[in-house]
Each structure stands twice: as C-alpha cells, then as structure tokens.
Design a protein that fits this description.
Layout: H1 2-56, H2 63-77, H3 83-108, H4 112-116, H5 118-153, H6 157-164, H7 184-188
Helix pairs in contact: 1-2, 1-5, 1-6, 2-3
Length: about 190
C-alpha cells in the first residue's frame, strides 16, 4: 500500500515537472518571438527619421503629415516594452504607425522628384524589407502565443499553469479598421 502511495506521488510529481517545464518552454518561445519583433520594430523606428529627413525638402506642403509620422513613431517607442502589461497598447501604437507609413507612401506618389532620389529610394526599400520581415515575425510571435495560450488553458497543463501563475498572453492584432477590404474602385477614381 505504501508503495502505491509513493508511486502515485512520484507520478504526480513527474507530471507537474513535465507540465511546468512545457509551460516554461512555450513562454520562452513566445519571449524569443517577441524579441525578434522588438528588434525589427527598433529597425523600423530608426529608419523613419531618415526617411522623413530625406522627404522634407521635397514635401514642404506635407509638413503636417511628416510631423504626424514622427509623433506616431514616438508614441510607438514609448508604448512600453512589457508585452504582458502593455501588449494591446503597443499593438495599437504600432498599427497607428503602420497606418501613418501607408499614408506617407500614398502621398509620396505625388512627388516624382522624391521618388527619383536615390537616397530616398534606398531608405524606402529598406523600410519595405523591414515591414516584410516584421510581418513574418508577427506571424511567428502569434503562433508561439497560440501554443502558449493553448497550453495554459487546456487540461491537464491548466492545473499547473494556475498554480504557478501562468496566464494568457495577448496576440499582436491589427486594428479593426485595417481589417476592411479596401475599395479599389474609389482609390482609382
């Protein structure tokens, strides 16, 4: 009888250790994916002032847009680095910055001299490459968050997660306004 109790206790302990270590591995994978997103966000933040500086001479009439882009960058940079506490705020700020960059790209189309500037073209190509890498990193981050959240919420890991304080983490989501399908007919007229 004592052997059964010791065996049961041993199995329960092994399960808790396995579940705990699995949760740690999933959390670390999510942190690693977030770190990749952060590196790419920093790269994008560093490119924006150079892009604005290159465009300033050509876009004198668009000073409000350029100033707004700098403000959106500053807002995104100051949104916080702790994803668990400020994930939604960070995502909102980054989405606003992405929208501002999209508006900037659209306005640049009206300035052929700017589009011919080699320095500006290089900066714009770097920003486009960064945006593509950032999109891939966000997908990887959301995938790792999904795996982590599933392990936190599903039985039997849920028993261990609650005991050791593992909680659900937010995804990196786009704003609801960006989910709408663009109306190309209006854009072309």
């Amino acid at each position: 009888m004592l052997w059964f109790a010791l065996g049961g206790t041993g199995l329960a302990t092994m399960f808790v250790m396995y579940a705990y270590n699995s949760l740690i591995a999933y959390r670390n994978a999510a942190d690693n994916a977030l770190s990749t997103v952060d590196v790419l966000l920093q790269k994008r933040w560093d490119l924006i002032p150079n892009l604005v500086a290159a465009a300033k001479g050509y876009m004198a009439h668009e000073s409000q847009l350029l100033q707004r882009l700098i403000e959106l960058r500053q807002s995104a940079m100051s949104a916080g680095s702790d994803w668990e506490r400020s994930g939604t705020d960070r995502a909102r700020a980054e989405n606003a910055l992405s929208g501002g960059l999209g508006q900037f790209r659209a306005v640049v189309e009206n300035y052929p001299q700017l589009r011919a500037n080699e320095n500006f073209l290089h900066l714009q190509a770097s920003l486009n490459e960064c945006e593509e890498q950032l999109s891939a990193a966000r997908r990887a981050f959301n995938s790792s968050i999904l795996q982590y959240n599933n392990s936190v919420e599903m039985f039997p890991h849920r028993l261990v997660a609650g005991t050791f304080g593992f909680t659900r983490r937010p995804f990196f989501e786009i704003q609801e306004s960006n989910r709408a399908v663009p109306n190309l007919r209006e854009s072309l007229t």
